[in-house]
Fold:
Amino acid sequence: MGNFSMKENYFKFILYLAVIVLLNFAGITLFFRADLTDDKLYSLSPASKDVVATLSEPLTIKVFFSKDLPAPHNNTERYLRDLLEEYAARGGKFFNYTFYNVTPEEGDLTQNTDENRDMAKDYGIQPVQIRIMENDEVKFKNAYMGLVIIHGDLIEKIETITSTNGLEYQLTGAIQKLNNKVSALLQLKDKVQVNMYLSNSLNTIAPLIGLDQLPMLNKAVADTIEKLNNKILGILELKHIDISDKKNLDTVSKKYNLMALSWPAIPEKNISAGHGAAGLVIEFNGKTNTLPLISALELPIIGTTYQMANPGELEEELNSVVEKLIGINKDIGFLSGHGTHSLMPDRLAMMQGMPSSGMQVLNTLVSSRYSIKQLDLKDGPIPDGLNCLIIARPTQKFSDYELFQIDQALMKGTNIAFISDSFNEIMPQQNSMGMGMPPRYEPIDTGLEALLNHYGIKIKKAYVLDKQSYTQQVPQNMGGGEQNIYFAPMLKENTINNTPQFMDNIKGLVAMQISPLELVEKNIDTTQVTATKLLSSSDESWLMEDSINLNPMFIRPPANEDEMKSYDLAYLLEGNFTSFFKGKAIPEKDMGEKDINEDNKENNTESTLENNKFTGLSAENTFIETSKTAKLFILPCSQMLQDNMLDPQGRSTNATFILNIIDHLNGDDKIAQLRSKQQTLNPVAQTTPLARSIIKAFNIIILPVLVILFGLGVLAKRTARKKKIANRFNA
Structure:
């Protein structure tokens, strides 16, 4: 120890001050942020980074946000500024944003503010009324809290931003919607190769199989591709390949699943024996997709008939396939007919006072990102360019040919979400006393069950009941209290598989009238297909089978706990599936279904009857036996799609789960992660009474004792140090 001179004290002070100033200067230009939140709430997600990094044309965001707003709206503005700054750092020169002053100065409505308000009005941004507290009084104030995104001639807007929850997802979704196609096409380095395998040798037999226009198909396809090229920046490169050698034909047709025809010599018509193929093979970055130019159908009585691709429809199919290959396809197929749920509310049922089975909320949420195509198998086949097909609660029988269409869609790589019910609820009519009987539940058998069983999943005809279930308040006139709705399991903790990225942060779900699933392991080739369990019930579950009665008053858990166990509730199968129809004859198409143009129906029939004499004609690769890599999602609970189970903003875990599944089936896991990033549901882990008592005792008794002991230890250490110093200086 020693005394420092006054000069040394001044010198140290000046030195410390200089260091502080230099550190502040360095901090202005050299800084970093550390996001310590578990889900990185304050950092851009990978999806957001990718979206702004791929901008190839200027994108401008104009923000109209009133200043000096009270909490929590001031925090929302600050979060928005930070978020846009993060976007700008990633987007570079193509990303620009501006905050416009729409707040009048104290006692002076400036001209600049007037102009900014008029601009906001022109973009459709209107002030909203918010509640504030001033001088212990509740007051209301009009405030601007919106923005517009401008990209070329396209505009998207977010009219009201009242919360930080889901804001990044909204922004990224809107930017992606504007930027997706244009930037993806502009940034393509390689052409999309379209190989047209169309053998000239087929022209000789075309009249015999009802394809008189086949010689003109070559030019029609070329014109279609030229027309499409004008719309998609000329990214397609067409090549015509005439192949008739049998060996080469077999190799190519098996590789690409091309229709291959072989025929014997017909001397009386001066036709030699030959072979030929017809189809389009679209290739990009090692991925391929095939569109048939000739297809074969089996019709009752008539037999085999051949059809040529319609050039008018080919353009739309080709565009969908190209968008799928380059990763910008936003089309979702939704199967209609067969008693499936409707995307719109059933107004007739609502007028009759019955619950509507519509899915308007789901339709709104999905339509914000995807284009939904409603498909009826009676009107035509499933388009080849779909990424995903949703089948929601069919109740009517599918024909074998319709099952064949669904099977072949999966074989072509179309991912399928099958969301079903095991029972059809039949509501009886009221009796003469004005009272109705309870509903009856009839097992549903559509034929799809056989397909799923073949792929490796069995849906059991039962409902899963669970002690860990949703509870509702009982009216006071009925005794009050809470009542468990056992057929509405609450899924949480280890009953939800959070390992897949799209399931991350899904902490709790509510199911309703859900059935158990079983893996049919003998039908799953584990070297080709992986089965991932996504949801299961708790260990306190049991089944309701045969006699179904969902009146909560009459449902009681089993007395014997051995009768309860966990059941699998949702699976995702992924890999290379084997066709249900492998080794079987192709099903005949019902003559009532649309498959032949009315103008050519008579000619096709005559040519087919003529073709029946042409017994030597054979067609190979008329259907696909082994699929490309595809995904099959099975959830036996269509109630989870209903309006009463989803929120219109898509922020609940139920809505997030369903939307994330759809994103995953469309190859958009990053958006799924972004959506679930701000999920805030964290259910408390279930513990035993003993464990709760131990935790309570630790907090009340043991923890304070530990603090006291720590304090006594610190006191003893300081006392010993004082004695040591005193002894050293003989104090």
